[in-house]
Amino acid sequence: MVKVYEINGVTPVVHPSAYVHPSAVLIGDVIVGPRCYIGPLASLRGDFGRLILEEGANLQDTCVMHGFPEDDTVVEVDGHIGHGAVLHGCRVKRNGMVGMNAVVMDKAVVGEDSIVAAMSFVKAGMIIPPRSMVMGMPAKVVRELLDKEIAWKKFGTKQYHDLNVRSMQTMREVDSRDEIETDRKRIDFGPDMHSPKQ
């Protein structure tokens, strides 16, 4: 059962085709759109501003979303938010990516098809142009992304679209085994899940 909390009479909304891990916490003004994936231990605190994940977005393990009153924190269509990232009062445009443990602050905009590198700190108000590679503390635009890098990002997001479906269909709470099975199988991703050639 997903941990969903109403506050001040406002209840989170989760589209039926979205997967939210039971250990994630959604509070108040949170809107999770179709085909989204919310990972374990993610915290979406819509107790001040509104939090929106548009169709196909993913917010991975231990991510935090929060914002100020009257502001929206938005991850647009196919936005990809890596493990442990923090989004506060910002917007990640369509097909944008925020890497692991990166922080994106208030009024910042991650441009369409842009990537914020892992561990980067995007200052409040920074506007990142489309197709940009951004990195550092504070983050700076270092170059334009190549087509193959954008294709790699889209491939990664597709893996999370598929994980959404696999999680909804097959994930269940069980007891662990005491020993490794002699014929232990591996997860079969199918032929479409291998990394594209770089």
Uncertain stretches: none
> What's the overall geometry?
globular
Give me the number of helical elements: 1
Instruction: Report helical residue fraction.
Output: 10-25%
Mean pLDDT: 94
User: How many beta-strand runs?
Assistant: 19
Give the name of the CATH architecture of the domain at 13-144.
3 Solenoid
Question: Over the alpha carbons, how many angstroms does the gyration radius reach?
Answer: 17 Å
Question: What is the succession of H and E elements?
Answer: EEEEEEEEEEEEEEEEEEEH
Intertermini distance = 40 Å
The major pleated sheet works out as: 11 strands, parallel
Determine the CATH topology of the domain at 13-144: UDP N-Acetylglucosamine Acyltransferase, domain 1
CATH superfamily of the domain at 13-144: Hexapeptide repeat proteins
Q: In percent terms, what proportion of residues is strand?
A: 25-35%
What's the CATH C level of the domain at 13-144?
Answer: Mainly Beta
Give the helix/strand class: mainly beta
Provide a short characterization of the protein structure.
The chain is mainly beta. The chain has one helix spanning 147-170, and strands at 3-5, 13-14, 19-20, 25-32, 37-38, 43-53, 58-59, 64-66, 72-75, 80-81, 86-88, 91-92, 97-98, 103-104, 109-110, 115-116, 121-122, 132-136, 139-144. The chain contains one helix and 19 strands.
Would you kindly provide a written description of the structure presented here, covering whatever features stand out?
The protein is mainly β and 198 residues long. It contains 1 helix and 19 strands. It is globular and about 55 Å long. The model has no long low-confidence stretch (mean pLDDT 94).
